[in-house]
């Protein structure tokens, strides 16, 4: 491709990226407004003293056992199944939530265009240096989020997801930006396409799992307070700050959702690890050498294996396993943001 | 809501009052051993060891490791002379082979084996066992659904249909009949546990393969200049690392020649000007007693031949240098691999001439493929390809130390015992040579020439053929990789099935009421995470009722006519 065209296309890619960031920022605000509205709605309901059975229904023991359900439910997908409306105070979709989702889709389209143009400008996959990893990785986080939305109502995570992607893109554009360059021989491999793509996809899953686990911990705190409060009045008083939590699913539902998303992330991560060793064997003549990046990929894998075990271990379900998911995603971010840039190793592809 | 309700031992659920007054029976030695084994193979220990493994892996990424970064370790000792020996005692430079790291993963794998064997036994029994009897009260189970059967339905027939529906959905079934009720108990998803066991067993397989696998192979390194040939024998390697169980005599003596090494550099994109785009070593492999085959070795494309893999590790220039004694005898003539020092291939090389001159001669050379001069007057290379090549040599004379019997590196010159004759503080400027040029050595020792590989094209101003290139190859033999790939496939298979196949029980019960009508009940139970359980029970109920209705119409039609 002509060099001039390439430079031009790359500048279009940057315009598209900045537009995407601006739109995401608006989406972030819309999602935040939705959370605020939820809080005030909860406040209003509580003030009207309509809270009667909050404690019972939000404690995570709400089950449909014993109830007679009659063939109302179609066969749902795995992630969405039993994504109940078991919120203490079910809350519909506010207009700001709708606006937030619409803006997110718009921002995503611009983000996608930015990524594709960068790839075309470089005449290869757009994930060969830190800037491009960040571009494609965040695009995949967003894609995973939007696809999961079709299946399960996780719109309440909008603030988190747009916020995370915005921060990552900001760092990428300001700190990691490099001009288009051809692939060095070490990266000319089909495994670049597979290994890095699947790793980014796994990261998208882990990001959502992280968000769900975080909300789960907050929700559990709220439920516990509600449960422990002798009178509903005092419960209202103590949970003022994050009152919107009452409109979100129970901590048990969040825990199960987080688990389902994290196990898919884990399978993808396992594949990433294997694809990486196959590539390492081709490029460096050994499939495993405890290079720093390999070490951290392994650590992340072990943490999530621990998370899966924790879910099956007496005394570790619930909040403790949620902490492992949170630590796991922190390690993923560390691996991307810190290990790539500051640690010495063979994976010196940050392009910085 | 099978999976959503927490089991009673959930960490977040309220604690039961601690049991008091339980008297532990006295344990003998076997009792203790059994207790210890139970602890080791418990889920809690597995989790603890996994988390320990994650934590224990961290130091190896903070401190350079001898296996992956030996120079980093040396540097660390220089930079932290007090700390380094202490860290070394703690095996911090060999984390992944250290006693503490090894003991964690060995314990983990003992735990794993101790956990998997009884579960496998148990699973084999479960695979042969019939699904359990239908619980008396289905109402407390998940996805509980009740329906009145269509009129004139026979309870036993209804269960026969239920059995068909369940069997066709992959359930294993057992039916139970009594006077007042019939039921079918069904279970599916045994593959979940199979997958889980396969996964864990394959992990053991990987550990064993990695542990012993290296012992059966070898790795060796060899530098070849364009035009040179190497025979796969022990002595021909520059360095050779056999595994513990490798037998040198099994080396297959094929030959490998480097015919041509081609490099291309980015030239259009100014942002990446001079960045290498491609390295290709064109080689010829000749198996013993067979015809020669051409091949290519690239950075991401090793050549697999004769049960070895040949990797391209590095490359650079190998200027051809000739030293002639005053009487005209050629005492040294070789293409000397110069090691690249930067991205534009400023390269450093050593020439040693022990015999044939009045004194032993050593030279430290710098080679600049495209020479340029900095403001300070220092030479540097501004482009990696051969645009304007220049070789500079600093000459030393004295004892090269080759006779002491101590092996010396061809890439290092010990100047302590030598007298410098050019460059540095000698006041005599270094020898600078263009391809095809010669210069007098100081002190009338002789002449040194930089031989041009292709004088004709250099004369026409194209130097790209003037200096040969070298490639350094890594040659490996590892018979266990096929095992690793196979176990890895099993790991993936085990993960997919172990995590995603739902295991569940479903029951259908038909009860005959006092008035003769039949009452149907459906319910399920998840074994493990199973978000779709209720949907599955509903689907079974729907299919079953549909089947009953079609059947009823068939029976009912003749009656109504
Ligand atoms: C090298 C160490 C280990 C690793 C990396 C590991 C990893 C995993 C993974 C990824 C899973 C989920 C996959 C599946 O269900 O197929 C799992 C599940 C499981 N592992 Fe391990 N494991 C290890 C050791 C152990 C040990 C020592 C035990 C026994 C104490 C054990 C018992 C189990 C059990 C019971 C499950 C099923 C959990 C569930 O149903 O949610 N594992 N393990």
If you had to describe this structure to a student in words, what would you say it looks like?
The complex is a heterodimer of chains A (352) and B (561). Chain A is mainly α. Helix content of chain A is 69%, strand content 0%. By secondary structure, chain B is α+β, with helices and mostly antiparallel strands. The longest helix of chain B is centred in the first third of the chain and has 30 residues, at 99-128. The radius of gyration of chain B is 38 Å and the shape is elongated. The two termini of chain B are 46 Å apart. Chains A and B meet through helix 6, helix 8, helix 9 and helix 10 of A and helix 2, strand 1, strand 8, strand 11 and helix 10 of B.
Query: Helical segment tally of chain B?
Result: 11
Helix-strand category of chain B: alpha+beta
Oligomer: heterodimer
Number of strands of chain B: 26
Most extensive interface between two protein chains, with residue counts:
A-B, 90 and 82 residues
Q: Give the overall shape of chain A, derived from the CA principal axes.
A: flat
Taken as a percent bin, the fraction of beta residues of chain B is: 25-35%
Bound molecules: protoporphyrin IX containing FE
Describe the largest sheet of chain A: none
Given as residue ranges, the uncertain stretches of chain A (5+ residues, pLDDT < 50) are: 49-82, 233-239
Calculate the terminal CA-CA distance of chain A, rounded to whole Å: 25 Å
Q: Major sheet of chain B, described briefly?
A: 6 strands, antiparallel
| Rg estimate of chain B, integer Å | 38 Å
Mean pLDDT of chain B: 87
Number of H/I helices of chain A: 10
**Helix amount of chain A:** 55-70%
């Amino acid at each position: 491709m002509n060099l001039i065209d390439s430079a031009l296309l790359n500048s279009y890619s940057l315009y598209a990226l900045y537009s995407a960031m601006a739109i995401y920022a608006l989406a972030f605000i819309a999602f935040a407004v939705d959370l605020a509205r939820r809080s005030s709605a909860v406040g209003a309901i509580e003030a009207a003293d309509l809270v009667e059975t909050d404690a019972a229904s939000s404690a995570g023991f709400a089950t449909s056992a014993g109830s007679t359900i009659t063939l109302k439910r179609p066969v749902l997908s795995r992630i969405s199944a039993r994504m109940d409306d078991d919120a203490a105070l079910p809350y519909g979709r506010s207009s700001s939530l709708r606006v937030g989702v619409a803006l997110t889709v718009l921002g995503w389209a611009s983000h996608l265009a930015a990524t594709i143009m960068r790839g075309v400008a470089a005449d290869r996959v757009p994930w060969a240096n830190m800037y491009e990893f960040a571009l494609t990785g965040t695009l995949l986080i967003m894609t995973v989020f939007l696809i999961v939305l079709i299946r399960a109502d996780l719109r309440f995570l909008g603030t988190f997801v747009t916020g995370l992607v915005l921060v990552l893109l900001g760092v990428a554009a300001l700190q990691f930006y490099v001009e288009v360059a051809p692939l060095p021989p070490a990266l000319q491999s089909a495994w670049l396409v597979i290994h890095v793509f699947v790793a980014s996809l796994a990261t998208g899953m882990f990001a959502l799992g992280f968000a769900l686990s975080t909300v789960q911990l907050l929700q559990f705190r709220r439920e516990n307070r509600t449960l422990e409060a002798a009178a509903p009045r005092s419960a209202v008083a103590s949970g003022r700050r994050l009152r919107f939590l009452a409109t979100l699913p129970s901590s048990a539902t969040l825990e199960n959702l987080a688990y389902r998303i994290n196990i898919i992330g884990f399978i993808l991560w396992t594949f990433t690890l294997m694809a990486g060793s196959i590539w390492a064997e081709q490029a460096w003549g050994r499939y495993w050498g405890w290079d720093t990046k390999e070490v951290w990929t392994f650590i992340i894998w072990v943490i999530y294996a621990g998370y899966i075990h924790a879910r099956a271990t007496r005394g570790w379900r619930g909040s403790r396993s949620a902490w492992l998911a949170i630590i796991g995603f922190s390690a993923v971010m560390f691996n991307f943001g810190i290990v790539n840039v500051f640690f010495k190793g063979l994976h010196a592809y940050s392009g910085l | 809501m099978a999976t959503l309700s927490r089991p009673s031992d959930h960490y977040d659920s309220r604690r039961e009052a601690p049991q008091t007054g339980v008297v532990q029976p006295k344990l003998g030695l076997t009792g203790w051993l059994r207790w210890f084994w139970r602890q080791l193979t418990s889920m809690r220990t597995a989790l603890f060891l996994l988390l320990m493994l994650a934590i224990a892996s961290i130091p190896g990424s903070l401190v350079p490791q001898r296996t992956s970064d030996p120079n980093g370790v040396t540097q660390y000792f220089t930079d932290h002379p007090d700390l380094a020996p202490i860290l070394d005692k703690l095996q911090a430079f060999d984390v992944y082979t250290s006693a503490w790291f090894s003991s964690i993963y060995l314990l983990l794998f003992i735990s794993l084996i101790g956990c998997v064997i009884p579960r496998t036994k148990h699973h084999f029994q479960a695979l042969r066992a019939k699904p359990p009897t239908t619980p008396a009260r289905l109402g407390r189970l998940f996805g509980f659904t009740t329906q009145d059967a269509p009129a004139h339905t026979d309870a036993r027939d209804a269960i026969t249909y239920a059995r068909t529906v369940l069997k066709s959905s992959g359930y294993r079934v057992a039916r139970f009949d009594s006077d007042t009720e019939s039921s079918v108990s069904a279970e599916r998803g045994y593959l979940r546990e199979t997958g889980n066991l396969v996964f864990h067993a394959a992990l053991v397989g990987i550990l064993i393969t990695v542990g012993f696998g290296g012992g059966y192979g070898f790795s060796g390194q060899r530098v070849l200049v364009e035009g040179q040939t190497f025979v796969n024998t022990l002595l021909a390697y520059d360095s050779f690392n056999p595994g513990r169980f490798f037998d040198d005599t099994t080396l297959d003596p094929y030959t490998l020649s480097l015919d041509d090494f081609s490099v291309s550099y980015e030239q259009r994109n100014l942002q990446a000007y001079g960045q290498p785009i491609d390295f290709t070593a064109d080689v010829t492999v000749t198996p013993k007693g067979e015809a020669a085959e051409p091949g290519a070795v690239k950075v991401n494309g090793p050549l697999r031949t004769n049960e070895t893999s040949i990797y391209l590790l590095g490359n650079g220039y190998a200027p051809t240098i000739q030293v002639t004694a005053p009487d005209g005898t050629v005492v040294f003539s070789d293409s000397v691999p110069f090691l690249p020092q930067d991205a534009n291939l400023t390269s450093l090389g050593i020439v040693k001439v022990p015999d044939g001159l009045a004194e032993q001669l050593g030279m430290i050379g710098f080679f600049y493929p495209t020479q340029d001069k900095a403001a300070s007057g220092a030479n540097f290379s501004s482009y990696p390809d051969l645009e304007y090549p220049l070789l500079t040599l600093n000459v030393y004379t004295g004892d090269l130390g080759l006779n002491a019997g101590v092996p010396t590196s061809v890439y290092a010159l010990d100047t302590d015992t030598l007298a410098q004759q050019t460059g540095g503080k000698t006041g005599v400027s270094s020898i600078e040579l263009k391809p095809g040029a010669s210069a007098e050595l100081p002190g009338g020792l002789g002449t040194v020439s930089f031989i041009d590989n292709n004088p004709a094209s250099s004369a026409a101003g194209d130097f790209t053929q003037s200096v040969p290139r070298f490639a350094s190859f890594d040659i490996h033999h590892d018979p266990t990789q096929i095992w690793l790939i196979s176990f890895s496939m099993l790991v993936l298979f085990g993960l997919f099935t172990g995590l995603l196949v739902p295991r569940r029980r479903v029951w259908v019960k038909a009860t005959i009421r006092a008035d003769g009508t039949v009452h149907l009940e459906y319910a399920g139970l998840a074994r493990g995470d199973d978000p779709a359980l209720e949907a599955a029970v509903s689907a079974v109920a729907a299919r079953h009722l549909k089947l009953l209705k079609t059947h009823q119409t068939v029976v009912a039609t003749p009656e109504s006519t």
